[in-house]
Write a structure and sequence with these properties.
Length: about 650
């Protein structure tokens, strides 16, 4: 944990304004959800989500003054939220204690109350955490975790409280922050465009998910046994302090069941290991024939920790999983794919026939670990060609299948440029820039190009363990996008892949389903449908994109989720867009895929046309409902 410059706040003078307990309580009750959200965002992520939730509520509930209290006179304090000085006082108390809670215990001679686990509130038998947000919220949470406590506080006061820097500076000084300039500089590292994400459910400690703790242990043990377990937990915590160390199971939670199958799944000696040449004679060509690689495949203590954490991750483990991927322990001994050193971590990758599990722990023995899951059932040869070994400094490093003969990096936005060789060396590629981790404007989209004896394939990082395969062509007849034609087809639409991050995507297909002549002799525009299929089969994402002649990028005209459009079960799509000609005239343009007999528009714009395209004069901002009739008589609605 980073040390933070937070100094004790001097006692206010008698001339400062006075806030009584009734006024502060009214403000606290009225703005309780916002105050708890503020505390949750400022608290250090290293506490774990359950501890942050409970601590945030405790800090807000302890923010009331005893009787009457005076507050410093600063602009933000005198105004407060909607002119309420009571809210401003309570907010300052919450901010000060949240900053104190982030200080290491060794930072002070005697622990402050906010640095210790809260006595109240407590929820027994449940682990609480906010609802999950999207990829943008997850990225913001990760970036906030890199800031110090005052840096997070400055960013949150700007984004959540909408305060100008002058007021932020005054509040941080009142809260005891010694280096306010450094805090503001840290906050500048995260773009202000992320401010709206602070209001998302990802950071709402008042809207929670609940999961049980260890049910079997709670049912089977008496009060005396629980007391003994508490004593053992204290001893375990002492061992984890500097000078001690982890137990043999590392960051795993205590065991809750013993049976032969469970014990076999946790025994590193029983891990499945495939011979290096098994893939050459096997009827299957997927992850099941990957050999075990890496310089730590013989490190039994490391493998034991990885298996134990997979079965029983504790609160010190950061667990993530692609959508609809179960995160429970393996049913039996899994297959070892990799164990070795990757950048600053020791990494173990395991496969149980349904999922890939990636375990990572710091090389330096620091507390904590990460456990990531990805569903890979039914993977074919190309989809089982690569796995993410690690991410660092915006780069990603892959472990490739034994049948891969060459790996290269290619910018999808530059179809005419060459590919840069990445090895691999013993199946491990050199680092390449991760498109999934880039922020700001999309100026490049680097993909992984793999070659084997069946051809060349393109895979893209979408922020998960398994990269997604890129294809082009009509649904049911798609092909790899690695050829010159496929690269040109993907180039204008590569940046739209950012909308498919962290969704469990298996592959993305780009299909040019129509070409439409533009009015006023403006050339011909392309209509492209990009469809992302998921490993679970649920929640496919579909984008209909429109590209004018000479346009560098396509524009998203319509999008949908859980739609059969552009898929093998229903290879039909209809979408429309408002387009402005060079002469300043507005038109509704719509196009359907092959098999569209006629298109009609109703609502704010009315018109119809035979065939698979429609052009109707329109007004700026007008909206229309699109319907198409297919040659088989079926009616098709517009996408979105």
């Amino acid at each position: 944990m980073q040390s933070q410059d937070v100094a004790p706040h001097p006692a206010p003078s008698s001339a400062e304004p006075v806030v009584d307990v009734e006024q502060a309580e009214a403000a606290l009750v009225e703005h309780y959800p916002r105050l708890v959200r503020l505390a949750y965002l400022v608290l250090p992520p290293s506490l774990g989500r359950n501890r942050r939730v409970v601590t945030a509520h405790a800090l807000v509930q302890r923010a009331l003054p005893r009787g009457k209290a005076s507050a410093p006179v600063i602009p933000a304090q005198s105004k407060g939220r909607d002119g309420d000085p009571g809210y401003a006082f309570v907010r300052l108390q919450v901010l000060r204690t949240a900053l104190e809670a982030g200080l290491p215990l060794r930072f002070t001679a005697w622990p402050r109350r906010s640095q210790l686990p809260p006595l109240l509130p407590q929820v027994w038998g449940l682990r609480l955490f906010p609802r999950s947000g999207g990829a943008d919220e997850l990225a913001l949470d990760q970036r906030l975790s890199t800031l110090s406590g005052p840096g997070r506080a400055a960013y949150v006061l700007r984004g959540l409280e909408r305060l100008p820097d002058g007021d932020v500076r005054a509040i941080l000084m009142a809260a005891g922050c010694e280096d306010v300039d450094e805090a503001l500089n840290e906050a500048d590292e995260i773009p202000a465009a992320h401010h709206p994400h602070l209001d998302s459910p990802e950071f709402d400690p008042c809207s929670l998910h609940a999961r049980p703790t260890d049910l079997m242990r709670r049912r089977q043990h008496t009060r005396a046994a629980l007391a003994a377990a508490a004593a053992l937990a204290v001893c375990g915590a002492l061992l984890a302090l500097p000078g001690g160390g982890w137990g043999p199971d590392g960051a795993a939670a205590p065991a809750y069941a013993q049976n032969p199958a469970a014990e076999a799944a946790l025994d590193p000696a029983k891990l499945l290991r495939v011979p290096p040449t098994a893939w050459q004679s096997s009827a299957r060509t997927d992850f099941s024939v990957w050999p075990a690689r890496g310089d730590l495949t013989g490190d039994k203590p490391l493998l034991r920790r990885a298996l134990a954490v997979w079965a029983r991750p504790s609160e010190h483990v950061q667990v993530s999983a692609t959508p609809d991927t179960p995160s429970g322990g393996p049913a039996g001994p899994p297959q070892l794919l990799y164990a070795g050193n990757v950048d600053s971590a020791r990494v173990v990758i395991l496969y149980d026939g349904l999922r890939i599990a990636r375990y990572a722990e710091p090389k330096d023995g620091a507390k904590g670990a990460a456990l990531d899951f990805a569903r890979v059932d039914g993977a074919d040869r190309t989809e089982a060609s690569a796995l993410v070994l690690g991410r660092a400094d915006g780069n990603v490093r892959y472990l490739t299948a034994p049948w891969v003969t060459r790996a290269a990096e290619r910018d999808l936005l530059k179809p005419g440029a060459g590919a840069m060789d990445l090895g691999p060396t013993e199946g491990i590629t050199s680092p390449l820039a991760s498109a999934a981790q880039q922020t700001g404007s999309c100026t490049s989209w680097n993909v992984l190009q793999l070659t084997d004896d069946t051809g060349t394939h393109l895979l893209t990082d979408l922020g998960e363990l398994v990269p997604a395969r890129l294809t082009t062509g009509r649904p049911g007849a798609s092909r790899d996008a690695s050829g010159a034609e496929g690269l040109r087809a993907w180039a204008p639409y590569a940046c739209s892949l950012s909308a498919m991050r962290s969704a469990g995507v298996r592959g993305v297909n780009a299909w040019t389903y129509a070409a439409q002549a533009l009015p006023e002799a403006s050339g011909s525009a392309d209509w492209v449908c990009t469809r992302a299929e998921t490993w679970s089969g649920a929640g496919p994402r579909v984008l209909a994109q429109f590209r004018t002649p000479g346009g560098t990028y396509g524009a998203v005209a319509a999008k949908a989720e859980n739609s059969p459009a552009c898929g093998t079960k229903d290879p039909h799509v209809l979408a429309g867009v408002l387009w402005k000609s060079e002469a300043g005239h507005w038109y509704l343009l719509a196009a359907g895929s092959e098999g569209t007999a006629s298109i009609g528009a109703s609502g704010g714009i009315t018109g119809s046309a035979q065939g698979k395209s429609l052009v109707v004069r329109a007004r700026p901002g007008a909206q229309a409902e699109l319907k198409a009739t297919l040659t088989d008589g079926r009616v098709l609605s517009g996408l979105g």
